[in-house]
Amino acid sequence: MLAFLLLAFVVALAVLASSFTARIERLQAPISVLPNILEVSAEKHPTRDLRSRVLSSGDAPECDVTGETARPVSAFVPAADETALSGLRQNCAFFSEVFYGAAVLGRKPETDEPTFGAFPAWEIRSEDHAMRGPERWPFLSPEVGVVEDELAKMLAGEVDEIIQAALPNPEAAKASGVSGVCLDLSGFGNISPSLVLSALGVLEQHLDRSGLGQCLIGPSEAAFLRDPDILATVDIAVAVLIDAKTSPTVAPATGAWIVKQVGELHEAAKTGKLRFAISAAGISWEGGQRRSSRVSYAVAMDQAATYSSPPTFDAKASSMMVRFIDVEGRPNQIWLPDAVTMSEALKAIPESIPVVIWPIGYEDPTLWEVFLDGSAKPPETVSLGEQVIETVEDGIFVSTSEGRLGVRRFEAAISPEVGLSALSYDIIPKAPWLSEIANVSLPSLTLTFDGLGDLDDFDSVLNALSGAEVKATFLLGLEDTLLRSDRITRLLEEGHEIGLLAEGDIDGDGLVSGLDRFSFDLSQHALHHHTGTLPVLVRHPSRSPLAVSRVAELAVARELQKQGRLALPTGISAPYGQYDPRAFHEVVLAAVLSQPFGIVRFDFSSGNSKSVSDSFKTTLDLFLAEGIQILSMPEVVETDAQRLHAYTDAQPDILDKVVYGSLRFSWNSFEDFFLILALIVLIRAPIQIVLALIWRNRYPVEPNYKPEVTVVVPAFNEEQVIARTIASILDSTYRHLKVLVVDDGSADHTAGIVEELVASDERIELIRETNHGKWYAEDIAINNLDSPIFVVIDADTLLHPDAIEYLVQPFRDPKVGAVAGTVEVGNQMNLITRCQAVEYTVSQELMRRAYQAFNGILVVPGAIGAWRTDAVREAGFVTGDTITEDADLTVAVNRANYRVVYQPDALSYTEVPETLRQFMKQRLRWSLGILQVSWKHKRAILEGRGIGLISIVESLWYRLVSGVVYPLLDLLLVGLLLQSVFAFALGVQPIAFGFSFEFYLAIAAHVFLDVVNLIFAFWFKRRWDWSLLLISPLMRLGFVQLLYISSFRALYHAVTGKLDVWEKIFRTGKAKMPRKPQAPPIARKTN
Question: Which molecular function terms from Gene Ontology are attached (predicted)?
Fold first, then answer.
């Protein structure tokens, strides 16, 4: 009865959970909670204040040279250029070489021994993601502002000292994976070849012992790139195809000019050392500025859209042009290459010569379609969805705006000299905006805590905050929101702020995904249940919202903004565990001095709260003594506290109280709950044994009771086994029988084999039907037989010679409607078949005997079962309502007021699945079929029958409750075993996981009962198999989990309506009977 009550509770809870989940999904944070903070306005910025970044599609760059391009492609990365570095992160797998800024000529490096092994400002640890594929060529550049005459004097003077200062340790550079060092003279085309040759000679001597190569970068017009001595000295020469005369009126590179330059460098190209660098960046000229500046395609298009100035195409210049007056009233003009104009320029460069993108990250991203497929044209649709535009300002929170697709039209070029005929943009593409907002100008801090800690630690920290009149922000996880509502109430009463913690991996659909997303939503709903408000602040502890470097992270930032949330950065984290308050104070102070505002994070989870509480008051006093202002979160965002809490119209629901009460019980009382379940099992096992002992009566054989029996064999494609099965039936010691084979439309030779047997024995009859299923074949047989009793066996079953003689004896009682025999595993070939042998033995010899006591046998097996013909007809024949027709018919006969009994001495031998795949197919059908039968005959529970109140309820218990709870126990058991093994190997004490002695005793009792049940089953069977006894305790480490998986799959199919899962198990004919079948001696009745 206790099991029935628990099952009813679980079913009710499942219904409540479904409604509760729908309620959680309907509860959404309102949009634009803080419109003045969250919304990205369409502000206009000077071009110099904007930059773009390319977002990565994965977690980290994969720099092995695995990508394939139609022609060799290299990358140019200016020093400390975030735009270029972001482009390199995304596309480095496609580059054969990377040229990157490493040092300034005439200036001492910032480090004593620079190796140039890592890219400047590349925030990825080189030991984790070293550049393995592309060749690395750091270059030495003159300092910005140096004019050509000054550079000439430097090269003519102490050039050795200049190079020595820039590259003090070439051997270390070589060891770090650098291929060589470049001299970058790309802005100095008039330097004499003799000076360049002299400088290269000094560089060669400096690199001589290291084995590093050397290269030269210069304008394509430079005479030194045409000097044969220079070309003989260097390993690589990069010719930059940007006209030195470029100005607001002169384009950087016309088509005709590029053709001319490539032609003039024909001799240099023959050396195989030449690379052509094509401009990927726009050249921006701003009124009042003496020099031009680089601007990316994304920024240029954004400015064109912001200032409503569509780009125009200058056919003579072979370039796009953007003109506008900026927000400061300055005229701006941008010469802008896009994928169309750049693909035209590529036509002038032989495909065998590598091309350098100058610089990477600035290009129209659709250019990559041309690089990946040399015959492809640039697409007319332009997407900048994998880039972001941002200002150079620093803030606390991230805000985003949507981008948009662009559409352009162009006419193909007639020749490189002529260039494009036309190019225009119908819709200007825009990249998403990423803004950092809520700037704080004064040196200040805000304090945040992840979690609520243990109660004593929580009180200690709040008392310290209260004494200093400081307000903090507490980010809460699921455990906090479910179990600590009293602490949440205190926080709000004392004026502190609360928010949510999000765990797990982020995805593009929201903050977190899968089960973690449900946990986050549940936390939100729990806070609403306790406080009536929804939190606005949210933090992901392992990711900073300001470090948006991936496409998925941008989608998350956008989703948070749509939800009206503020994503709180991680900030400066206090060390985990015990820490020195003074040392941490110095770290925080240094951070505040470098930028005016800092967020301090304390990990206040239960495992670390004691460490925090021990040091927090001292830490807080040090902050205050330094004169640092500690701001509350409303002060940071310059709003009142109420605006950090969203209010909804959702009203409290009685369902919430029920669900939260259940969740608190399961969270706090898991061990108690498991012990209750274990107690049910511990009580159930001895009850089964007692019932089996009480109901041990056997039906003695009455020699004069010889009713006619028809053995029905439904068959479908059973040519491998049908002859053996019929032979075993005809070998029966019971002579008053006929064999009726119903061929259910077999596609093999089954029917032909049976026809040959019919010709040799008149007791055999064959009925041939089209394929309708086993249940239909059995009904055809029932309609065609005239015997009062019939036996149904599977076509692969081997009957013991005495089996039918035992099966008919119980039918002397007119209330017996069906008799279940014993199925033995006839192919104990491997571990999975032997596990099934253990399962068959316990379920029949113990459980079926016990179920017989209250007329609760749930299944008369299809492998051997006898039926009273009138009882079956009265019960409604066999139906196709379920996929386990034998169980369905068993319950129907029971409900027709007949008894179903077990005859253990009636033996048959069947072939069980030998492979995991076949086994899982069979068990899915069995599990789903029992669920169907239980649902179809649910009224048997209300009728008060044993088969309903006990058998059906227990079957549902096993599949709905045990199938969910016991896998957790098994996982825990495996975990205990593994950690015990490791603990023994390391010579340490195993971890107790905080559970009581009773808990571990219950686990041991489960395993012990498995063995006890098998021992009693063997005792009832009067035959022992010690090998199976050894297997029994190990079945919890694999086999039992397969049964749980089958239960889960059955529930899934039942819920989704995918019920047609019957698949025929392939038969091999390996099932065998013992040579001397060991049936118990038949007890003959004597007069």
Answer: glycosyltransferase activity
Strand order in the sheet with 312-314: 293-295, 282-286, 331-336, 319-325, 312-314
Q: Rounded to an integer, what distance in angstroms lies between the CA atom of residue 251 and that of residue 244?
A: 10
Tokens describing residue 987: 């010579």
pLDDT for the residue 1082: 41
- Determine how many CB atoms are found less than 10 A away from the CB of residue 586: 12
User: How far is it, in rounded angstroms, from Cα 50 to Cα 45?
Assistant: 7
Q: What pLDDT, on a 0 to 100 scale, did the predictor assign at position 46?
A: 73
Identity of the residue numbered 645: H
CA-wise closest residue to 103 among 53, 162, 54: 162
Contact partners, residue 12, CB within 8 Å, separation at least 6: none
Confidence tier at 1052 by pLDDT (50, 70, 90) = confident
DSSP state of 48: G
3-state secondary structure 954-987: HHHHHHHHHHHHHHHHHHHHHHHHHHHHHHHHHC
Question: In CATH, which superfamily holds the domain spanning 48-436?
Answer: Glycosidases (3.20.20.80)
At 687-720, the pLDDT tens digits run: 888 888 887 666 777 888 999 999 999 999 999 8
* Phi, psi dihedral angles at 135 (to 5 degrees): -70, 140
Tokens of 889: 């018919």
The band of 426, judged by pLDDT with boundaries at 50, 70 and 90, is very high
CB atoms within 10 A of CB 29: 18
Read off the tokens for 512: 């977190």
- Say if CB 362 and CB 407 are below 8 A apart: no
Percent of residues in the chain assigned helix, strand, coil, to nearest 5? 45, 20, 40
Pairing of strands 355-358, 274-279: parallel
Q: Do 818 and 903 meet the contact criterion of CB atoms below 8 Å apart?
A: no
Q: For 869-919, write each residue's pLDDT tens digit.
A: 999 999 999 988 888 899 999 999 999 999 999 999 999 999 899 888 889
| Stated pTM of the model | 0.57
The residue ranges of every structural domain in the chain are: 48-436, 440-649, 669-703+789-1087
Q: How confident is the model at residue 660 (pLDDT cuts 50, 70, 90)?
A: low
User: In CATH terms, are 48-436 and 440-649 the same topology?
Assistant: yes
Render pLDDT for 257-282 as a digit per residue (tens, 0 to 9).
999 999 999 888 888 999 999 999 99
Distances (CA, A) of 49 to 293, 294, 320, 515: 12, 12, 22, 42
* Distance in angstroms (rounded) separating the CA atoms of residues 323 and 51: 18
Concatenated DSSP letters of 778-809: HHHHHHH---SEEEE--TT-EE-TTHHHHHHG
pLDDT for position 216: 95
Average pLDDT over residues 40-55: 70
**Residue 233 pLDDT greater than 90, yes or no:** yes
**What are the start-end ranges of the E strands in 516-621?**
533-535, 537-539, 566-567, 572-573, 597-603
Q: Is residue 1028 over pLDDT 50?
A: yes
Average predicted confidence (pLDDT) for the chain: 79
Residue 160 in 3-state DSSP?
helix
Query: Whole-angstrom Cα distance, residue 340 to residue 319?
Result: 9
Backbone φ and ψ of 187, nearest 5°: -100, 15
Q: Which residues contact 374 (CB under 8 A, 6 or more apart)?
A: 70, 71, 351
With bands split at pLDDT 50, 70 and 90, how would you rate the model's confidence at 417?
Answer: low
3-state DSSP assignment of residue 1053: helix
- Runs of H (alpha helix) within 600-653: 609-625, 633-636
Q: What is the CATH number of domain 440-649?
A: 3.20.20.370
Contact 538, 493 (CB under 8 A): no
- 113 confidence band (pLDDT: 50, 70, 90): very low
Contacts of 628 (CB under 8 A, 6+ apart): 443, 444, 445, 589, 592
Residue 52: name the closest of 406, 387, 547 by CA.
387
Asked if 615 contacts 623 with a C-beta cutoff of 8 angstroms, the reply is no
